[in-house]
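Why this split exists: single-chain examples teach little about how molecules sit against one another. For that reason, every record in the complexes split bundles all components of an assembly together and asks for one structure covering all of them. Below is a record exactly as it appears in the raw files.
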Amino acid sequence: MSSLVRHNGLPLSEAMAFGLASAILFAYLPFIRIHGLPLVAYRIAPRGIIRRLNRDLGLGMRFERFGSPAEGTRRLNQLLEQGQPVGLQTSAFWLTYFPPDMRFHFNAHNLIVYGREAGRDGDEYLISDPVAESVVRCARADLEKARFARGMLAPRGLLYYATGKPTTPDWAKLGRRAIARAAQAMLYTPLPFVGTRGIRLLARQVSRLPDDAHARLYVGNIVRMQEEIGTGGAGFRFLYSAFLQELGSKTGYAALDPLAAQLVEIGDRWREFALAAARMIRDRDRFDGPALAERLRALADDEKKFFGELHAAQRAWAC
Amino acid sequence: MRERDVPQEGNATLGGYRRGVYAVADDGRVRLVASRGWEVEEIVTRQVLQDLERHARDARERALAGLTSPLEVHMYRARMDLALLSQITGLWRWRIRRHFRPQVFARLSPGLRQRYADALGISLEALGRID
């Protein structure tokens, strides 16, 4: 996402893009099940990040969906010929450059295509993907399958590109608003499964798990969502602290620095939770649902305190 | 997490890629650091893969014993479950479950077979086989 913005002339780091979109969150969604396990999210949906940045930075983002793969590919080629990098929503399962062990049916994988070349077996696209550090290639047929995968959150060929020329914004104004939005979502969302209350709800579920194979899959699922590629570790907590630091140095608001350090420590607690869970999955430690639940409750307390202080710092921020 | 504590444990499920992790550098700034993997990630990724493989193996044995059709085997091999296959093909779950019966599967129309083959990303011929 940040690279689409950079292409349009506004230097923006991944951390700033994430933070300005108030993307950090916690949500435990038991009614969305993947392989029978509930979805645990540590940030808002990628679509939401794009939409918020689009509005706040004036990117003039266009979104297009298509009825058929042929149409979708034609439009993609047309945009690439104009030199326009294009964002795509895809299913990770059909992307052949993915490590085989990472290919799951996950329909909200976003990547950026910025070129097309004739390869050995037809067209190949040049792709910048968060799983890989350098450029990867994907054949046309595979990319079509990935873009038109069906099922939950089906992309229906979604592509997006920026048309506006963003000017350098007032970082302090945007940052203040973004922080308020994030703190409010974490503390005051009136739903029991979102924010710090969502962590508590999840803790309650974990404490009730019996000692069986399903329980191990259940906690494994939480850890996987937390340490998945693109999270930057600890369910985006480290990434958000990078944002707080960068915003602090851009605007000279010193109160953000200690908060960033506090969030790094919370991220470390999340990593410790992951480690404890993994040891139980491998039976190096006895499976102990209540102990894991206790860690989650402590994390809920830590995050409640953190976002409370962040919110206070935001209100004290005169600009 | 300090930069020097970023795990470099060579997670095999990453397939040689490195993943970005944010960590605190010596100057106190949080920066993106490349990680060759953390054992914890490997454990949880392996865990789901093994679960899917177990289902596929189990289905294969039942298919060889004539208790289920190759369709169920290919479903698990494609890392899907009944709910997902139903969403992808647009067929009711009970209909797919019915197609798990070898006698029903054997009489399946070419159109339906093609629909399954497309959803699973395999050829028509491969759909009827188990190896």
